[in-house]
Write a structure and sequence with these properties.
One of its GO terms (cellular component) is cytosol. The chain is an alpha/beta fold and 136 residues long. It has 4 helices and 8 strands; from the N terminus they run βββααβαββββα. β2 and β3 form a beta hairpin.
């Protein structure tokens, strides 16, 4: 396989999934799953990666990591007061307890990692400063 690979890692509340996807083909080459380990998710990530042929991992040119830990904590009302930055979303996802601390910012990427819309960095900085001023 001459196609370089992208590694996607998703550490969820229960399971951690990893997938190798061909950069040019966009096809899943192999995937694996393990239990998510808390409070340190690295053991669950390692357990999933251990199921992948090491020769394939050497072809990885991009690693993407996602997790629902922060979102789950907000939805479950756990932890300290927090804000949520939604990049590329116009509406708040259903189920959030409050829309008060949600910052919506223009930007986003296609599923293959290519930029779809540039991140509105100036707006993001301004909105974060306003948010933090409101907590003081």
């Amino acid at each position: 396989m001459s196609d370089s690979l992208r590694l996607g890692i998703d550490a969820g509340g229960t399971y951690t999934d990893v997938a190798l996807v061909g950069r040019e083909s966009g096809k899943v080459v192999v995937w694996a799953k393990s239990l998510t380990t808390r409070p340190d998710p690295s053991a669950g990530i390692s357990a999933a990666l251990d199921q992948i042929n090491p020769s394939l991992l050497k072809k990885v040119r991009l690693v993407s990591l996602s997790t629902t830990f922060a979102t789950n904590a907000i939805v479950e009302g756990m932890g300290a007061e927090a804000g949520l930055i939604l990049i590329g979303y116009d509406e708040c996802p259903p189920g959030l307890p409050s829309d008060t601390h949600v910052l919506r910012i223009e930007g986003g990427h296609h599923v293959n990692g290519d930029e779809k819309i540039g991140l509105a960095e100036t707006a993001l900085r301004s909105r974060i400063e306003s948010f933090l001023d409101g907590l003081a």
